[in-house]
Design brief:
Layout: H1 7-18, E1 23-27, H2 40-57, H3 60-75, H4 79-90, H5 92-102, H6 113-118, E2 125-128, H7 134-142, E3 149-152, H8 156-159, E4 169-172, H9 187-194, H10 197-209, E5 211-215, H11 222-233, E6 241-245, H12 250-258, E7 261-265, H13 273-284, H14 312-315, H15 320-335, H16 340-352, H17 354-360, E8 371-372, E9 375-383, E10 387-393, E11 399-405, H18 413-431, E12 440-445, E13 448-453, H19 460-465, H20 472-491, E14 506-509, E15 519-522, H21 549-552, H22 563-579, H23 593-601, H24 612-623, H25 634-649, H26 657-667, E16 675-677, E17 682-686, E18 692-698, E19 703-711, H27 721-730, H28 732-738, E20 742-748, E21 752-760, H29 761-765, H30 768-779
Parallel strand pairs: 1-2, 1-5, 2-4, 3-4, 5-6, 6-7
Antiparallel strand pairs: 8-9, 9-10, 10-11, 11-13, 12-13, 14-15, 16-17, 17-18, 18-19, 19-21, 20-21
Length: 786
């Protein structure tokens, strides 16, 4: 059985189940062997046998020379140089045909189970070193109505722009069986590919921005290993990667540690069944909540009191501040061993002094009654379902914010655990120096409060109410910064989740001082997370519209310890700052949700990037889908917001081909009412004549494709429409050529017609408005029957 208790596997499983980092899978030939396809050694042996057969068929005078060369190649320890020599000796044509012969059944053989299981995991894409396209066949089998973005190794320069898009991607790094010019088998072909700047940049992005899983390949494959070594030498803070391997020798362990790879080990057998066990266990796993959080000893100023612990009755004669000091002094003493016995003793202590603790919980901002363990409460600035927030002053005169949890929380074990968990999260973020978090200072449980830095500036609700967030520049900046901050917390080894993202928990530091130079800060990190429907008080707050369904529905199949919970909160927060309307409970399930989101995104000042409101609408909807597994992850959200920021500002560096396609459609009068298809990256519009117009993105070749099609159905709107359509489209190809579109397909038949043309994205990017005008002028003749 596969060992599911090994540390490296548990760590990787946490990333998979919690979706805290995007994942890329690298696959090698070992994964395709179930289909009867050869691995490296098998393919090399096949070519070697072909060379020996040629040797035996050679002239007697050549046999010795060829035999010596064949034996020399067989002894070569390096596969890359061996394939190079086999190609040279066999000849390019025979070499190519023998490889195709051995891989001939790749398109018809049963799809290996491992490939299909991989696509059931929340992965962004697959980088494969195989020629067999099994990754693509498996994806189509698992997702029959969707198509992946598929690239060759020589095209990955364009893939970097779509790696965080909604569509899954497949990069056939070493080519595919149908195109022998794309094959990377030899040392010289690998060297040439690795000499390309775009290729190295792409792999660095993969290794520095994603968690990578290597499966079905040898761990010392220089096609991968060399890049890992290069990355480790650059001292880039990259995530740990994982390699599923059956090798357990010390040299392998040592190499892996040096290049940032953790080995997930399995015992080999004849069919590598443990690989399937590994994948099935990942698919079936759900995230576990952390172990119970222990009580929190007061972490503020030293407790300077010589008072001894009085009896519960005697404690009641003291004022609230003295009670706090004495109780916390005792709590520090009890909890100092930090073991289960100490925690049990503390719980008994709390029960014994319950009434005194109730007195200690009383807080006020009135002079003479406003002391709280060395802090002076100046004024209450907020009251929520879980606590009161005060502007306060420390003993040395610094201004701070103190959130005191409501007294009834201490009687609810779930809410008290949430408070403790929140403090632990804030401590982690403080220790890890995560930017954008409100700094944590002190905490206590008697009473339960947390002290944080004071921020001058409004929260998002206050800023929106003041009509300060009415243009796209602010909305895009805040949305991107907020998502990046939360993603950085997710990316920590501790994988801290927030789970209570809403406008009142996001502040704009120094906004009132300088509205052009403010920073986003996140409050209450994990402080108010509540699981299931038990915490009924949350249902009576405006925050419920920002909570993911799995947080409030006991029947939900999602987990509250999953990054998709934060994606939901971010999506609803963006909805609010666009339109200024608080989301109602289960708004994402309403029939008119899409219309409400569109109204919100179109309420902002217009942008020169015409498709911006529509794309932001899709981002919000994609982030707030009901099913947790279908929501965009935070890397996708950040990547889209960065692209939209660039587009809005006039920069084209982040513009993908599919973005360009949609923008061309948005600026075109003909396509003004287009429908966008995310699966095909296309904008479509059907004219009353029956003509279907479609603009789509050819990402691998960086082209925009235009397809115009018509087929007679017998129910055309007007009699004789067929002849007019055919006549109108006969000259269209010439018009497109004049507009510098390249005609790919041109078919005119009695019952149908199809014209397909392409244009390089770079030429369109130079002047999108002009290209839209030309497109409209060219297609004008097709609108005669509107």
């Amino acid at each position: 059985m596969f060992d599911t208790d090994q540390d490296s596997y548990c760590s990787f499983k946490g990333i998979v189940t919690e979706r805290t980092r995007p994942i890329i899978v690298w696959t090698g030939a070992g994964l395709s062997m179930e289909a009867g396809l050869p691995n490296w050694i098998g393919l090399r042996n096949h070519l070697q046998e072909a060379l020996y057969r040629r040797t035996f068929q050679a002239k007697s005078s050549d046999i010795a020379r060829l035999s010596e060369k064949a034996d020399s190649i067989r002894r070569d320890p390096n596969h890359w140089t061996a394939f190079e020599r086999l190609q040279q000796t066999l000849g390019r044509t025979s070499y190519r045909d023998h490889i195709r012969e051995r891989l001939a059944n790749a398109s018809t053989a049963p799809i290996p189970s491992a490939y299909r299981l991989l696509w059931r995991l929340p992965i962004s894409g697959i980088l494969t070193l195989n020629l067999d396209r099994m990754a693509t066949r498996a994806y189509v089998a698992e997702n029959p109505e969707q198509l992946p973005v598929e690239f060759l190794g020589s095209q990955v320069g364009h893939l970097a722009q779509v790696m965080h898009s909604e569509r899954k991607f497949i990069a056939n790094l070493h080519g595919n069986i149908d195109d022998s010019s794309s094959w990377i088998f030899t040392h010289s072909s690998l060297k040439e590919l690795r000499s390309k700047t775009f290729y190295n940049d792409f792999l660095r992005t993969c290794l520095s921005s994603f968690t990578n899983l290597f499966i079905g390949m040898t761990i010392d494959d220089i096609a991968v290993g060399s890049h890992l070594k290069s990355l480790s030498k650059l001292n880039i803070e990259a995530p740990s990667h994982f390699w599923l391997t059956d090798r357990g020798d010390f040299r392998t362990d040592e190499w892996a540690e040096k290049v940032g790879v953790r080995l997930i080990k399995y015992r080999p057998d004849s069919n590598h069944s443990q690989v399937l066990e590994f994948l099935k266990d990942l698919i079936a796993s759900t995230p576990n909540d952390p172990h119970p959080i222990p009580p929190l000893a007061f972490s503020g100023l030293p407790i300077n009191t010589t008072e001894t612990l009085l009896s519960p009755e005697e404690m009641l004669s003291l004022n609230a501040e003295d009670i706090r000091y004495i109780l916390n002094q005792e709590a520090v003493r009890i909890l100092s061993p930090e073991n289960d016995q100490a925690y049990n003793e503390y719980e008994a202590f709390v029960q014994k002094y319950d009434e005194a603790i109730f007195r200690a919980w009383y807080t006020s901002d009135k002079d003479g009654r406003n002391q709280l363990l060395g802090h002076k409460l100046k004024q209450q600035v907020a009251l929520g379902a879980f606590g009161r927030v005060y502007e306060a002053e420390t003993a040395d005169g610094r201004k701070v914010a103190i959130k005191v949890l409501l007294e009834n929380i201490r009687r609810d074990p779930g809410l008290l655990r949430s408070f403790r968990r929140g403090v632990r999260s804030m401590r982690i973020l403080q220790e890890r120096h995560v930017d954008g978090m409100v700094a944590y200072e002190t905490t206590s449980e008697i009473p339960a409060f947390v002290t944080m830095e004071w921020i001058e500036g409004p929260n998002l609700t206050e800023a929106k109410d003041a009509r300060a967030l009415e243009d796209w520049e602010d909305v895009l900046f805040i949305s991107k910064e907020l998502t990046s901050i939360i993603r950085n917390a997710h990316s920590l080894p501790d994988r801290v989740l927030h789970r209570d993202i809403r406008p009142s928990n996001v502040m704009l530091r120094d906004y009132w001082i300088d509205p052009s130079n403010y920073k986003v800060a996140v409050l209450d990190f994990d402080l108010s997370w509540h699981r299931g429907a038990q915490e009924l008080s949350v249902l009576h707050t405006t925050a419920v519209g920002y909570l993911a369904p799995e947080q409030i529905l006991a029947s939900s199949d999602g987990s509250t310890r999953n990054a998709a919970v934060d994606a939901f909160g971010i999506g609803m927060t963006i909805y609010y700052i666009c339109g200024g309307t608080e989301p109602l409970p289960e708004l994402h399930q309403h029939a008119n949700y899409a219309d409400l989101v569109e109204k919100a995104t179109r309420s902002l000042t217009s942008s020169s990037w015409k498709s911006l409101p529509e794309r932001m609408k899709r981002l919000i909807i994609s982030s707030t889908r009901h099913r947790q597994s279908e929501r965009w992850d935070l890397s996708q959200i950040v990547a889209e917001l960065e692209r939209l920021q660039a587009a809005h500002s006039g920069s084209i560096s982040h513009i993908t081909t599919e973005m360009l396609v949609e923008e061309l459609a948005a600026r075109s009068i003909t396509f003004a009412k287009y429908e966008w298809n995310t699966d095909t990256n296309s904008a479509s519009y059907q004219l009353p004549t029956g003509l279907l117009l479609q603009l789509s993105a050819d990402e691998p070749n960086a082209n925009v494709s235009l397809r115009i099609s018509w087929a007679r159905t017998g129910i055309e709107q007007r009699a004789g429409m067929s002849k007019y359509v055919i006549k109108a489209t006969r000259t269209l190809a010439d018009q497109l050529k004049s507009a510098h579109w390249k005609i790919v397909t041109e078919k005119h038949e009695a019952q149908s017609m199809t014209i397909q043309a392409t244009k390089n994205r770079q030429s369109i990017l130079q002047d999108i408005d002009h290209e839209a005008e030309i497109l409209d002028a060219t297609l004008q003749g097709l609108k005669f029957a509107e």
